[in-house]
């Protein structure tokens, strides 16, 4: 795959920030990474490992299975401008339900946090625990509005799956590889998986690592890319596969003002 540099911004759905110009991508991790770095790709070059005729098929099958089922996620990682993102939630693609909390900190700016629950086409949002939820009817919100919440791929898992390029097996349930990132429209990124916070405006490359369990579910996804003179690392831990998400509308909420519907 041809090497080219992504241009990254923090997605406006989380926080508006300026563009950065990354350097070349970092190679995928090998099997000798220390325990603290095992969840995300290392900056060291990968040790030679057998690609194996089934490595890609095994990982893609696990990704497709995970993408189609209910799962919970915990996310942490870097975003441009020396900021960090942390989040958690649960997603039920068949039931069209998601609950997500996230916070962006660092970069010399005040922390930004938000919480969202979506049940069908009803969105409930607030900034922090204890506040009253605000209800927004997504059927009335224009799709190009900053207030719209697209439930087509809210965690970015589908985009991640479609971006997987090369895959190598580093063990019975561990994989590394590269992502071929297509150019995003602003605020349409998919990384990190779970709480998408980065838009790659003109396409680019990244490396990833992933682990699966004995049942064929994906349990971790680590991604790494270069941003200027720094390395952005992010990790998503997945659990609760195939179980009830527990997502339901909040009991205490108020209605959004009419201007949110951009009439």
TrEMBL record:
Residue stretches of biased makeup (Low complexity): 26-53
UniProt entry keywords in alphabetical sequence: Signal
Gene3D superfamilies: 2.50.20.20
Region annotated Disordered, chain positions: 26-54
UniProt KW Signal keyword: yes
Keyword Signal applies: yes
Signal peptide: 1-28
Stated name of the protein: Lipoprotein
